[in-house]
Amino acid sequence: MSEFVLDARDVVVRYPGSPPVVGVDGVSLRVAPGETVALVGESGSGKSSFARAVVGIERAAEGSVLFDGRPVARLGLRRRAPQLTGIQMVFQDPSTSLNPRRRVGDQIADGVRAAAARGAQASRPAEWLERVGLDPAWVSRWPHQLSGGQKQRVAIARALAARPRLLVADEPISALDASTQSSVARLMRDLVAELGAGMLFISHDLAVVRRIAHRTHVMYAGAVLEHGDTAELWRAPRHPYTRALLAAVPEPDGAGRIPVAPTADERAAWATVPPIA
């Protein structure tokens, strides 16, 4: 078994067009068991395209994606191989990722069965609801009976019930109210660590990333411009784009800087600065 649950190297994702649109331009990233790695950047920077390539929803035009040392095949109409159900994803909008025609408990049971197929210890959907802070009796509820935040916790419970080796969380807290964002992010980090899994946490919220991620990769225009230990990157950012992102993060007392949209000249300058390893 590989020392990394995720080993993505030089991943390129292109979309049809004339010329083709490059969504991800040669991104490399690794996640070890028990580690949370953040991928941050503005909307449109390519974060979600990379996440979808990692789990096999998008095809990588170039490069490689290995999960526990095995290539990740693109998802098709057939059910994914049992060993690859160790990759689970939490999407940004739980209203589209949960099936409105199935009860909450039945959907979490899908994760339980995936874990059982890989020889994991048996569990019950109600246990996972309790672990994400919801009433275990809600196994009989329908998704429409839940708030947005409650739906997202159900989606997290379903993913974790599969006892993943790798959890890919694509903007999992952006649809939540501000009062619950940090608590849900910490909950995900703690449960993933408890399972001995790794997590790729994708977000534009650097304040949350600072609290939960061991390492951070900063993405802009499809490429990673800078990466490193989260505390060190926060203390001494080297790339001008990273410095601009951090300058827009509000202070804890609410009296932070007012985010200012970058100018066209600044964006052009960022594109010419070499990435920082």
Automatic annotation (TrEMBL):
PROSITE patterns with a match to the protein in the record: ABC_TRANSPORTER_1 (PS00211), ABC_TRANSPORTER_2 (PS50893)
Domain ABC transporter: 6-246
Protein keywords: ATP-binding, Nucleotide-binding, Transport
Domain of life according to the entry: Bacteria
InterPro entries assigned to the protein according to its UniProt record, in alphabetical order: AAA+_ATPase (IPR003593), ABC_transp_ATP-bind (IPR050319), ABC_transporter-like_ATP-bd (IPR003439), ABC_transporter-like_CS (IPR017871), Oligopep_ABC_C (IPR013563), P-loop_NTPase (IPR027417)
Family stated for the protein in its record: Belongs to the ABC transporter superfamily.
UniProt-recorded name of the protein: ABC transporter domain-containing protein
